[in-house]
Design a protein that fits this description.
Order of helices and strands: EHHEHHEHEHHHEHEEHEHEHEHEHEHHH
Radius of gyration: 21 Å
Organism: Sphingomonas arvum
Strand content: 15-25%
Number of strands: 12
CATH architecture of the largest domain: 3-Layer(aba) Sandwich
CATH superfamily of the largest domain: Glycogen Phosphorylase B
Shape: globular
CATH class of the largest domain: Alpha Beta
Protein name: Glycosyltransferase family 4 protein
Number of helices: 17
Number of domains: 2
Pfam family, one: Glyco_trans_1_4
């Protein structure tokens, strides 16, 4: 079986690695050949991290290249699309892109519909509101990172599956933890998600400044350096060191604001932390409420005071950290591991190829 996959970015984007690339070895073993074609390359992803303005001409060339690519998959059995083929363009061209009878699978791990349907600019809403509905409605299947996204897709596509974002729990494993103090409170993400840390940054800076905990921020990019908060260790994200950075933490955090787009997040940070045996603290927003078992694998914290209390509990109680971390590791292996989800995707693709 041959699958052509269209991603938004190349491998330096977390979405491409999480939702596609890590599955390829299992797909190959199952007789599924996957060729993936990113819209925008790693240079674009790096520009987001450094705060540089993307090259608009390069983006236009990328869109033109993708349009040409759409006419070169005559031997494909299935097309797999992450999000959409042409972001911020009307759906009409995308709907005409595939030959009749070719199964198309759309994948969502973010609420991609919100920036269109609830855009503050009336002209954008007029042009693009509801864009994803005909795309999902015409798909053979839609895979969604959580139930919030699936609730959007199910009325449009009968074959909608919740496939959580996962990690390879053979790579993400618990490391031996040092008893040295201070322990490390950590966050890993991207420049686009760094803003979610805003409400708790003063609290984290205070903990770091007083020496109560080391605060490690991985992947926030150039924007984080301009915030001026003391006591924060800003680490550049690199694929080769990503697992080691998470393993070096003692507590993993995922604060979120609550809005329609953020509710579609898939909780990947939490899964990384839990797979490495860390207790977690997270805002009770969207799928976080399903991933975190409050009081078992970590804490759900709504207010700054909730965050302060949860951090104090974990910082001062190593046995509690150990118990919660072990419970989180078990939960990650059972529900959020590559080994638990790859067979479901493989069965979906084999079924579609058989015409099922």
């Amino acid at each position: 079986m041959k699958v052509i996959a269209y991603t938004k970015y190349d491998r330096e984007a977390a979405s491409t690695r999480q939702r596609l690339l890590q599955y390829l070895p299992a797909f190959t073993k199952a007789g599924i050949e996957v060729e993936y074609r990113p819209l925008l390359g790693d240079d674009y992803v790096r520009s987001l991290a450094t705060g540089e303005r993307p090259d608009r001409k390069a983006i236009a060339r990328a869109y033109a290249r993708r349009w040409r690519q759409l006419h070169s998959f005559h031997d494909a059995d299935i097309v797999w699309v992450y999000a959409e083929l042409f972001p911020w363009l009307p759906a009409s061209g995308e709907r005409l892109a595939f030959r009749p009878g070719l199964p198309v699978v759309y994948d969502m791990d973010d609420a991609f519909f919100v920036p269109y349907d609830a855009n503050p600019r009336a002209a954008v809403r007029h042009l693009l509101a509801g864009k994803l509905r005909p795309l999902i409605g015409g798909a053979a299947a839609c895979t969604c990172g959580n139930n919030y996204l699936a609730d959007y897709a199910k009325p449009l596509c009968d074959r909608t599956l919740v496939v959580p974002t996962v990690v390879d729990t053979d790579r993400y494993v618990a490391a031996d933890r040092s008893c040295a103090q201070p322990l490390t409170v950590g966050w890993i993400g991207s420049p686009s998600t760094f803003a979610q840390l805003g409400p708790v940054l003063p609290l984290l800076a205070d903990l770091g400044g007083q020496g109560k905990a080391a605060i490690k921020i991985v992947g926030a990019g150039a924007r984080a350096a301009s915030q001026g908060f003391p006591g924060l260790s800003l680490i550049r994200w690199e694929e080769a060191t990503e697992v080691a950075e998470v393993q070096s933490m003692d507590i993993g955090i995922m604060p979120l604001t609550d809005d329609a787009f953020v509710r579609g997040k898939s909780g990947y940070k939490l899964i990384q932390y839990m797979a490495c045996g860390l207790p977690v603290i997270a805002s009770p927003v969207g799928v976080n409420r399903e991933i975190v078992q409050h009081g078992v694998t970590g804490y759900l914290a709504s207010t700054v005071e909730d965050w302060r209390e949860a951090l104090q509990q974990l910082i001062h109680n190593p046995d509690l950290r150990c118990r919660m971390g072990a419970a989180g590791r078990r939960r990650a292996v059972e529900r959020y591991s590559l080994s638990s989800q790859a067979p479901r995707l493989i069965e979906l693709f084999h079924s579609l190829a058989r015409g099922g």
